[in-house]
Design a protein that fits this description.
This protein is of the alpha/beta class. Helix content is 26%, strand content 11%. Strands 1-5-4-7-3-8 form a six-stranded mixed beta sheet, sandwiched between helices. A two-stranded antiparallel ribbon has the order 2-6. The longest helix is centred in the last third of the chain and has 18 residues. The two termini are 29 Å apart.
Length: 221
Amino acid sequence: MGEKKASADGDRRIGRRALLIGGTAAAVGSAVLARDELARLWWRAPGVEKPRVQGAVDFRGAQWVAASDANWRRADRPDDYGIDMVIIHVTQGSFASAVKVFQDPGHGAAAHYIVRKDGHITQMIRELDVAYHAGNRAYNERSVGIEHEGFVDRPEDFTDEMYAASARLTAGICARYAIPVDREHIIGHVEVPGTDHTDPGEHWDWERYMRLVRKVPSASA
């Protein structure tokens, strides 16, 4: 599952109203800030962000259950942070326990999605926003995190229904953001620099999973 505390990767939520238009204009005039950093500042100005619909999901068929806002940071991706990665997690517990901890403001972590053993998908954070799931701030900002119900040492937890549903989800994310469908851009939590997590573990069938993702018509090449 994701990191225990948001402070583990230095992520902090920034109040939208804390940055005034005048401050943004001053930043634009500064030659010190890079162009991408200016874009990140600009969207935080009052009234400048993508429209949001309460309870909307990014993956058709997903159920919306909101995570605690202490476990993610409001953003406007991919305009302020480009998305070029999907990170695969395993909950090390039940689906219900994962939902519960992601709704707990004291947990300090949550992923965008949870895939249940029967293939049901719950979305808890919009893809627009930065979820605290990777244990690495830069990877949080550039990725979408997908949790999978189960335990890393129980291969029977990774059901056919789970693989199929997760593959459709990942293929959709890759198509939305033009992410290459390869193991450099679809990775396990264990592969994130600086993490002490081992998921999805040795029993996660990467060859099977990648084959399923590529078979989805919307998947990128």
